[in-house]
Automatic annotation (TrEMBL):
PANTHER family named in the record: RRNA PROCESSING PROTEIN EBNA1-BINDING PROTEIN-RELATED (PTHR13028), RRNA-PROCESSING PROTEIN EBP2-RELATED (PTHR13028:SF0)
InterPro entries tied to this protein: Ebp2
Record flagged with keyword Coiled coil: yes
Primary residence: nucleus
Keywords from the named record: Coiled coil, Nucleus, Ribosome biogenesis
Comp. bias regions, Basic residues: 153-177
Protein name: Probable rRNA-processing protein EBP2
Functional summary from the UniProt entry: Required for the processing of the 27S pre-rRNA.
Annotated spans, Disordered: 65-177
Similarity annotation: Belongs to the EBP2 family.
Amino acid sequence: MRKLSDAGVETNRPNDYFAEMAKKDDHMKKVGDKLLALKNRQEMTERNRNNFKLRKYGKQVQRAVTLERQMKKKETLNSIKKYRKGKTTNPDFLDETSKENGPHGKKVSQFQKLQKQNVKRNYRDQKYGFGGKKKGQKRNTNESSNNVSGFKKNVHGAKKKNVRPGKTRRTKLKSKR
C-alpha cells in the first residue's frame, strides 16, 4: 500500500463511484437484522444468568436471616418459660433492645412490644368479648328491643305530606262524594 501511494496510484474508491453490489440491499438488511437479533439474544442470556446468580445469592441471605430470627425467637421463648417456672428471677430478656427500629428511629424493647400487643388484645376482648357463648349474640332481647335511643325520627318516622292516597282510598273518597 505504501509503494502504491508513493507511485501515485489511488487505492480508495472515490465518493461518487457507483458499482453493482454482489448482493441486493434487502438481503444485506436481512443479514444485518439477523446479526442484531443474535447479539440481542446473547445479551439477554447474559442478563438472565446474572439475575439468576443474584436471586440465588438473595435467597441464601434471606435463608440465613430467617434462621437467625428463628434462633432468637427460640431463645426468648425459652427464657420466658424459665421465668414463668421460676428458674430465673430477673426479666432481663425482656429489656434487650431489638435490632429493628421502632417509630421515630427509637429502638423498641421486646417488653414494650409485648405491652403493645396486650393493649390490642385487651381492646379486642373488650369490644368483641372473650370466650363464652357465640350463638345468638346478635338476637334481640327485651332490653334491646325496648331501647329506642338509636331511633332517628327524621330518618325512620317522618312521613311525607301531600302524598297521593292509594287506589282503595281514592275509590272510597269517590264513593263518599
